[in-house]
Protein 1
Amino acid sequence: MSFMHSADTEIMTNKRNYVKTGFALLLLVYGLAIARDVDDYRFLDRVDLVPHEAGHLLFSYFGEFIMVLGGTMGQLFAPIAFGLYFYLRNERFSTSVVLFWLGQNLVNITRYVKDAQAMAQPLVSVGGGDDSIHDWNYILLKLNLLRHDQVIGNVILGSGLFIMLLSVLLGFYYSTDETDRMS
């Protein structure tokens, strides 16, 4: 078989990385728990709060509407930035893990979008004052879309669950040695 190119040989000799495979399996289990009850608060929801609140502060210089939307933008920016970083470094497995975080963020956001009319969810604000507003009530009201909060929330939920599933599948795919997949 001396006619085979060395790249062809690499493809045939891929070895499964069991740590990565185990982590992808852990993401699958975590994703199923999220999908089973999207209203339950979990570990990553608390992590999401930091870039969410930072987004409000960062975007406060661009007016009230952008400041309120900035919480969600900050929450989504964090996994997108990390994902882009790993993607540009050709670290595909790490990119798939961060993609899961993006999907989880969308599921987290769904709770508040679907609560825009009822405003029953507890709110958090920097400093813990009584000046908290419901981000998605404000956003959808300003866009004249408040009556569609359930539909918009369901679209975001479906997108988040799809992205989480895609990330798990990519995680399993990239849990082999990546030398042949970096081009």
Note: Residues 179-183 have pLDDT under 50 and may be disordered.
Protein 2
Amino acid sequence: MKTAKLYVTFIYVLIFLAISAGSFAQDKDSKESKTPEDRAKITSDKMKTSLNLSDEQYTKIYNLNLQKMKDAKEFRESESKLRESREKSFTEYKSSMKTILTDEQMKNMKKMHGDRKFKKGHHRKHHHKK
């Protein structure tokens, strides 16, 4: 009797893992096919909740993110863009953010970016040990 329950539980775990693996594969595919508008909305929505943005700030941030996503797509598609152009675009983005967000929101955003960079760096370091 206990063995039968153990087998049933094992089968449920296998089914769950199979479904989970399938959903991860779909997330990766859908991420690559998102438009700049989709990416800007997702990024802006995350910022709205984590930084507690007002509606006015959200609209400005969305427009700024949309332009950033369009520029990034253009940079990826065109190999003739120079590095200085990218840096200038990024500097303008940061300056615009400083005019839109409060000091506290900027501090929180920098913390969020710092946490993300740490995680990415840690992942890369671990990945290259192979």
Note: The radius of gyration is 21 Å.
Protein 3
Amino acid sequence: MINKRAFTLVELLLVMVVLSVIVALSVPNFNQTLKRFELKKTAQDMVYLIRWAQSRAIQDNSEYRLVFLDELNSYQILRADSSQTSSNKKFISIPIRMGRVMRVPRSVKVHAAQAMTIYPDGTLDKVSIELEGQGGKLTVSSREQRGNVFILEGVYES
């Protein structure tokens, strides 16, 4: 007796071909979505770190600084050394997780000044940090409103 509930080899191959076409069409879209996600995540991480440093600056009554390293491929938050005189400030690494060097993904290019200072009263240097990738352009900016940092779509023109 022949089992009529089974699939034939032709039917299985046809399903595999259809699935392969669907996967082949969705991979480029997924790649673009991943690049856009990396760009947005980099901007969000940078804003989060700046806001954290801003709250710590107020709490510690100390200056903090966001600095870019390795030709703008990474960034880090530093704290002003309290043992130094005010005329010659030296910034030191923070020995906690928030003080580690943050890497910028290879798909994201940063165009920025070399540093942003966060002052003890919570104000920030007026700086625009432009992030550019295949997913578009975003600007992390502290120019719009005193003491606030924003993520703007596109490139901010000063």
Note: The two ends are 81 Å apart (CA to CA).
